[in-house]
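#struct-pred

JT: dropping the chains for the assembly here, can someone run the whole complex?
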Amino acid sequence: MKYFIGNWKMFGIEKSFKILKKINLHIKKDFYKKSYKVMFAVPYTLISNYSKKFKNSKILIGAQNCYFKDHFSSNTGQISAFMLKDAGCSFVIIGHSDNRAEGDNENILYEKVKNAINNNLNVIFCIGENKKQKEKKQTLKVLTNQIKRVFKKDFNEKKIIIAYEPIWSIGTGKIPKTNELSNTVKKLKKTLKINYGRKKNFKILYGGSVDGTNASKFSKLTDVDGFLIGGASKSDKKFIDIIKNYYR
Ligand code: PGA
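RK: done, full complex below.
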Protein backbone atom coordinates (compact mmCIF):
# COMPACT_ATOMS: atom_id res chain seq x y z
CA MET A 1 0.00 0.00 0.00
CA LYS A 2 1.36 3.41 -0.98
CA TYR A 3 0.34 6.70 0.62
CA PHE A 4 -0.11 10.06 -1.09
CA ILE A 5 -0.63 12.63 1.65
CA GLY A 6 -1.31 16.29 0.97
CA ASN A 7 -0.20 18.94 3.45
CA TRP A 8 -2.03 22.15 2.68
CA LYS A 9 -0.21 24.21 5.35
CA MET A 10 -1.80 27.72 5.47
CA PHE A 11 -3.92 27.21 2.37
CA GLY A 12 -7.58 26.54 1.74
CA ILE A 13 -11.04 28.00 2.29
CA GLU A 14 -14.47 26.38 2.08
CA LYS A 15 -14.64 26.40 -1.73
CA SER A 16 -11.21 24.73 -2.04
CA PHE A 17 -13.04 21.43 -1.47
CA LYS A 18 -13.44 21.38 -5.27
CA ILE A 19 -9.76 20.44 -5.48
CA LEU A 20 -10.34 17.37 -3.33
CA LYS A 21 -13.53 16.53 -5.21
CA LYS A 22 -11.59 16.27 -8.49
CA ILE A 23 -8.86 14.21 -6.84
CA ASN A 24 -11.52 11.92 -5.40
CA LEU A 25 -13.02 11.35 -8.86
CA HIS A 26 -9.60 10.31 -10.14
CA ILE A 27 -9.05 7.88 -7.27
CA LYS A 28 -12.45 6.30 -7.87
CA LYS A 29 -11.54 5.63 -11.51
CA ASP A 30 -8.19 4.23 -10.46
CA PHE A 31 -9.35 2.27 -7.49
CA TYR A 32 -9.58 -1.24 -8.90
CA LYS A 33 -6.25 -1.00 -10.69
CA LYS A 34 -3.91 0.33 -8.02
CA SER A 35 -3.67 0.16 -4.29
CA TYR A 36 -2.96 3.50 -2.66
CA LYS A 37 -4.38 5.75 0.02
CA VAL A 38 -4.95 9.49 -0.27
CA MET A 39 -5.05 11.69 2.81
CA PHE A 40 -5.22 15.47 3.17
CA ALA A 41 -4.06 17.52 6.13
CA VAL A 42 -6.15 20.67 5.88
CA PRO A 43 -6.25 23.77 8.12
CA TYR A 44 -8.21 23.49 11.39
CA THR A 45 -10.95 25.73 9.96
CA LEU A 46 -11.89 23.16 7.31
CA ILE A 47 -11.66 19.89 9.22
CA SER A 48 -15.22 19.55 10.44
CA ASN A 49 -16.89 20.47 7.16
CA TYR A 50 -14.50 18.54 4.91
CA SER A 51 -14.71 15.44 7.13
CA LYS A 52 -18.46 15.42 6.57
CA LYS A 53 -18.17 16.17 2.85
CA PHE A 54 -15.62 13.40 2.26
CA LYS A 55 -17.03 10.89 4.73
CA ASN A 56 -17.88 8.26 2.14
CA SER A 57 -15.09 9.15 -0.25
CA LYS A 58 -11.61 7.74 -0.88
CA ILE A 59 -9.96 10.70 0.87
CA LEU A 60 -9.16 10.79 4.56
CA ILE A 61 -9.13 14.20 6.26
CA GLY A 62 -6.62 15.11 8.94
CA ALA A 63 -4.91 17.97 10.74
CA GLN A 64 -1.43 19.48 10.51
CA ASN A 65 -0.71 19.72 14.22
CA CYS A 66 -2.28 19.52 17.68
CA TYR A 67 -1.50 20.95 21.11
CA PHE A 68 0.60 18.96 23.57
CA LYS A 69 -2.15 18.95 26.23
CA ASP A 70 -5.18 16.75 25.71
CA HIS A 71 -8.94 17.21 26.16
CA PHE A 72 -9.81 20.77 27.27
CA SER A 73 -7.50 23.32 28.88
CA SER A 74 -7.19 27.09 29.26
CA ASN A 75 -4.74 27.68 26.38
CA THR A 76 -5.94 30.38 24.04
CA GLY A 77 -5.88 29.42 20.38
CA GLN A 78 -4.92 25.78 20.89
CA ILE A 79 -6.61 22.59 19.71
CA SER A 80 -6.19 19.16 21.30
CA ALA A 81 -6.06 15.70 19.71
CA PHE A 82 -9.36 14.95 21.48
CA MET A 83 -10.98 17.94 19.72
CA LEU A 84 -9.51 16.89 16.36
CA LYS A 85 -11.01 13.43 16.70
CA ASP A 86 -14.38 14.96 17.55
CA ALA A 87 -14.16 17.21 14.47
CA GLY A 88 -13.79 14.12 12.26
CA CYS A 89 -10.04 13.86 11.77
CA SER A 90 -8.57 10.47 11.06
CA PHE A 91 -4.94 11.53 11.36
CA VAL A 92 -2.64 14.34 12.41
CA ILE A 93 0.80 15.48 11.26
CA ILE A 94 3.21 15.87 14.19
CA GLY A 95 6.76 17.20 14.18
CA HIS A 96 6.80 19.04 10.88
CA SER A 97 10.00 21.10 10.62
CA ASP A 98 7.87 24.29 10.53
CA ASN A 99 6.61 23.43 14.02
CA ARG A 100 9.95 22.17 15.29
CA ALA A 101 11.37 25.56 14.27
CA GLU A 102 8.64 27.22 16.32
CA GLY A 103 9.61 25.35 19.48
CA ASP A 104 8.28 21.79 19.31
CA ASN A 105 10.96 19.90 21.21
CA GLU A 106 11.11 16.16 21.83
CA ASN A 107 9.17 16.28 25.14
CA ILE A 108 6.37 18.22 23.49
CA LEU A 109 6.39 15.89 20.48
CA TYR A 110 6.19 12.86 22.77
CA GLU A 111 3.05 14.29 24.43
CA LYS A 112 1.51 15.11 21.07
CA VAL A 113 2.11 11.62 19.64
CA LYS A 114 0.82 9.98 22.83
CA ASN A 115 -2.36 12.10 22.85
CA ALA A 116 -2.99 11.49 19.16
CA ILE A 117 -2.69 7.71 19.57
CA ASN A 118 -4.83 7.76 22.73
CA ASN A 119 -7.54 9.50 20.73
CA ASN A 120 -7.29 6.88 18.00
CA LEU A 121 -5.77 9.24 15.45
CA ASN A 122 -3.10 8.04 13.05
CA VAL A 123 0.12 10.00 13.28
CA ILE A 124 2.26 11.25 10.41
CA PHE A 125 5.52 11.88 12.25
CA CYS A 126 7.96 14.15 10.37
CA ILE A 127 11.70 13.89 10.69
CA GLY A 128 14.53 15.37 8.64
CA GLU A 129 18.07 16.67 8.67
CA ASN A 130 19.14 20.19 7.75
CA LYS A 131 21.68 21.08 5.07
CA LYS A 132 24.61 21.30 7.48
CA GLN A 133 23.85 17.91 9.01
CA LYS A 134 23.60 16.38 5.55
CA GLU A 135 26.95 17.85 4.54
CA LYS A 136 28.51 16.43 7.70
CA LYS A 137 27.01 13.03 6.81
CA GLN A 138 24.96 12.96 10.00
CA THR A 139 21.63 12.21 8.32
CA LEU A 140 21.01 8.73 9.73
CA LYS A 141 22.14 9.70 13.23
CA VAL A 142 19.88 12.75 13.24
CA LEU A 143 16.86 10.81 11.99
CA THR A 144 17.37 7.95 14.43
CA ASN A 145 17.63 10.36 17.36
CA GLN A 146 14.55 12.29 16.28
CA ILE A 147 12.61 9.03 16.45
CA LYS A 148 14.24 7.43 19.50
CA ARG A 149 13.74 10.50 21.68
CA VAL A 150 10.02 10.56 20.98
CA PHE A 151 8.76 7.01 20.34
CA LYS A 152 8.36 4.81 23.35
CA LYS A 153 8.63 1.04 22.88
CA ASP A 154 4.94 0.55 23.66
CA PHE A 155 3.72 2.98 20.99
CA ASN A 156 1.59 1.09 18.49
CA GLU A 157 3.61 1.48 15.29
CA LYS A 158 0.54 0.61 13.23
CA LYS A 159 -0.82 4.03 14.18
CA ILE A 160 2.34 5.81 13.03
CA ILE A 161 3.67 6.68 9.60
CA ILE A 162 7.08 8.33 9.48
CA ALA A 163 7.61 11.08 6.91
CA TYR A 164 11.25 11.66 6.07
CA GLU A 165 11.46 15.28 4.95
CA PRO A 166 14.97 16.69 4.55
CA ILE A 167 14.64 20.33 5.62
CA TRP A 168 16.78 21.45 2.68
CA SER A 169 14.31 19.91 0.24
CA ILE A 170 11.05 21.36 1.58
CA GLY A 171 9.72 23.93 -0.86
CA THR A 172 13.09 24.32 -2.60
CA GLY A 173 12.69 22.10 -5.66
CA LYS A 174 15.69 20.05 -4.48
CA ILE A 175 15.30 16.32 -3.91
CA PRO A 176 17.78 13.70 -2.70
CA LYS A 177 19.47 11.44 -5.25
CA THR A 178 17.39 8.29 -5.60
CA ASN A 179 20.18 5.97 -4.38
CA GLU A 180 20.77 8.27 -1.40
CA LEU A 181 17.08 8.28 -0.49
CA SER A 182 16.79 4.54 -0.94
CA ASN A 183 19.82 3.96 1.32
CA THR A 184 18.56 6.29 4.02
CA VAL A 185 15.12 4.70 4.14
CA LYS A 186 16.49 1.14 4.08
CA LYS A 187 18.99 1.85 6.86
CA LEU A 188 16.40 3.67 8.92
CA LYS A 189 13.97 0.75 8.67
CA LYS A 190 16.73 -1.60 9.77
CA THR A 191 17.67 0.60 12.73
CA LEU A 192 14.01 0.83 13.78
CA LYS A 193 13.75 -2.95 13.80
CA ILE A 194 16.83 -3.17 16.01
CA ASN A 195 15.41 -0.57 18.40
CA TYR A 196 11.74 -1.49 18.45
CA GLY A 197 11.63 -5.19 17.53
CA ARG A 198 11.83 -7.30 14.39
CA LYS A 199 8.07 -7.64 14.06
CA LYS A 200 7.48 -3.90 13.91
CA ASN A 201 7.17 -2.64 10.36
CA PHE A 202 7.36 1.13 10.32
CA LYS A 203 6.18 2.81 7.16
CA ILE A 204 8.39 5.60 5.85
CA LEU A 205 7.26 8.25 3.39
CA TYR A 206 9.38 10.78 1.58
CA GLY A 207 8.49 14.49 1.57
CA GLY A 208 10.11 17.57 0.06
CA SER A 209 9.45 19.10 -3.37
CA VAL A 210 7.59 16.06 -4.70
CA ASP A 211 5.83 16.97 -7.95
CA GLY A 212 4.50 15.44 -11.15
CA THR A 213 7.88 15.70 -12.85
CA ASN A 214 9.99 13.92 -10.26
CA ALA A 215 7.35 11.40 -9.08
CA SER A 216 8.38 8.79 -11.63
CA LYS A 217 11.94 8.82 -10.23
CA PHE A 218 10.58 7.46 -6.96
CA SER A 219 8.65 4.57 -8.51
CA LYS A 220 11.52 2.13 -8.27
CA LEU A 221 12.13 2.79 -4.59
CA THR A 222 10.09 -0.02 -3.09
CA ASP A 223 11.15 0.83 0.47
CA VAL A 224 9.56 4.27 0.25
CA ASP A 225 5.93 3.79 1.28
CA GLY A 226 4.59 7.01 -0.20
CA PHE A 227 4.84 10.78 -0.10
CA LEU A 228 4.01 13.84 1.94
CA ILE A 229 3.23 16.57 -0.56
CA GLY A 230 3.09 20.29 0.23
CA GLY A 231 3.07 22.77 -2.66
CA ALA A 232 1.83 20.33 -5.31
CA SER A 233 -1.14 19.25 -3.15
CA LYS A 234 -2.82 22.63 -3.62
CA SER A 235 -3.69 21.82 -7.24
CA ASP A 236 -5.79 18.82 -8.27
CA LYS A 237 -3.92 18.56 -11.55
CA LYS A 238 -0.47 18.56 -9.95
CA PHE A 239 -1.53 16.08 -7.27
CA ILE A 240 -3.13 13.72 -9.80
CA ASP A 241 -0.01 14.02 -11.99
CA ILE A 242 2.09 12.76 -9.09
CA ILE A 243 -0.07 9.65 -8.76
CA LYS A 244 -0.20 9.10 -12.53
CA ASN A 245 3.53 9.51 -13.07
CA TYR A 246 4.42 7.42 -10.05
CA TYR A 247 2.52 4.46 -11.52
CA ARG A 248 3.53 5.07 -15.13
P1 PGA B 1 6.79 20.68 -0.33
O1 PGA B 1 6.40 20.52 1.23
O2 PGA B 1 6.20 19.50 -1.05
O3 PGA B 1 6.16 21.99 -0.75
O4 PGA B 1 8.27 20.71 -0.42
C1 PGA B 1 6.43 19.30 1.87
C2 PGA B 1 6.07 19.46 3.33
O5 PGA B 1 6.52 20.44 3.95
O6 PGA B 1 5.36 18.60 3.90
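JT: nice. The beta strands are 2-7, 36-41, 59-63, 91-94, 122-127, 160-164, 203-207, 226-229. The first strand starts at residue 2 and ends at 7.
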